[in-house]
Specification:
Layout (H helix, E strand, L loop, with lengths): L1 H5 L1 H15 L7 H13 L4 H18 L4 H15 L5 H4 L9 E6 L6 H14 L4 E6 L4 H14 L3 E2 L7 H14 L4 E6 L6 H15 L9 E7 L4 H13 L4 E5 L9 H9 L3 E5 L7 E3 L2 H9 L1
Parallel strand pairs: 1-4, 1-5, 2-3, 2-4, 5-6, 6-7
Antiparallel strand pairs: 7-8
Helix pairs in contact: 2-3, 3-4, 4-12, 5-13, 7-8, 9-10, 11-12
This protein binds guanosine-5'-diphosphate (GDP).
Guanosine-5'-diphosphate binds next to helix 7.
């Protein structure tokens, strides 16, 4: 229900436009397909993914010779679900066999909701009875360290930090050492997301990883990229740039409440081939949900 509310704007946007595109038509013809293309693009699905969806529907029209507009909904759902990828069950639960402590390196540009997502995740893990440690490796901004500290107090989990300007890799190293000592289950490492210098970003993330591996051999077990869903095509660009700088293994897409751009989830998931693990649907501590593609698609169409 929260998901439905969260996606209210995306849903009414998409569903209403789709309804208009097929109004008064009984079969899917070129006009309907043109309108559908516009609906997808204006819902921020992205051009390449839109073209892919339209082609698939054209193929089905060609194969069956006739496609009723009522069936279009069903087919569109299937095609969209096929393009979305969600996280495997094992990884969803951060099972101990994947790593103990299970280390999540969180990356993303400032302002996308990175700190909030880390706080919400820490809260969820703690509620599951897991021991969590936070690492403030975004040492570039004093505010980033302070914000993370506020979350650590709010959720009541330990944080490892150094002063602003210190080496992020050193903070990450300290964090993992503390986590091992505390026998922690999950470690969330915040990192700086300065995209204006791609080589620096790449070097920094590579170094953070390398240094963490001195403490926990397979760390990080997950590189979670946080993207602001309300920025539409900007989120796309960031996703591409971060994937070029480091191997991103999962996505959190925030601020899907209050935006009509929820379609961006479809395009990013398809283009990046990285599973969407979480979606942010509000500013509150409980407003982070596991991404489930069937629920997501349903919330768009129902
Ligand atoms: P950071 O700079 O990436 O760490 O961003 P913050 O975590 O500080 O978040 C920036 C702003 O976005 C804050 O005002 C958050 O409350 C807000 N925010 C984060 N996630 C969500 C979300 O899912 N929905 C909404 N509406 N706001 C969010």
């Amino acid at each position: 229900e929260k998901l439905d509310q969260g996606l209210e704007k995306s849903k009414s946007n998409f569903f209403n436009k789709l309804g208009k595109a097929v109004a008064g038509k009984s079969k899917v013809d070129d006009d309907v397909l043109d309108d559908l293309e516009e609906v997808l693009i204006s819902s921020d699905v992205g051009v390449s993914t839109t073209i892919k969806i339209i082609r698939r529907i054209e193929d089905r029209v060609a194969k069956d010779k006739y496609l009723g507009t009522e069936e279009l909904n069903v087919i569109l759902r299937e095609e969209i679900a096929a393009l979305l990828s969600e996280t495997e069950e094992a990884e969803k639960n951060n099972q101990p066999e994947l790593g103990h402590p299970y280390v999540i390196m969180v990356v993303g540009v400032n302002g996308v909701g990175k700190t909030t997502t880390i706080g919400k995740l820490a809260y969820q893990f703690k509620k599951q009875g897991k021991k969590v440690v936070l690492g403030a490796a975004d040492t570039f901004r004093a505010a980033a360290i302070e914000q993370l500290e506020i979350w650590s107090q709010r959720v009541d989990v330990p944080i490892v930090k150094q002063k602003m300007g210190s080496d992020p890799a050193s903070v990450a190293f300290d964090t993992l050492q503390s986590a091992v000592k505390l026998n922690a289950d999950v470690v969330l490492i915040d990192t700086a997301g300065r995209l204006h210098n791609k080589i620096n970003l790449m070097n920094e993330l590579t170094k953070v990883k390398r240094v963490m591996q001195k403490v926990v051999p397979n760390a990080p077990h997950e590189v979670l990229l946080v993207l602001d869903g309300s920025t539409g095509q900007n989120a796309f660009e960031q996703a591409k740039q971060f994937s070029a700088a480091t191997e991103v293994t999962s996505l959190a897409i925030t601020k899907l409440d209050g935006t009509a751009k929820g379609g961006v989830v479809i395009g990013i998931s398809d283009q990046l081939q990285v599973p969407v693990k979480y979606i942010g649907v509000g500013e509150g501590i409980e407003d982070l949900q596991d991404f489930n593609k069937i629920e997501f698609v349903d919330s768009f169409f129902n």
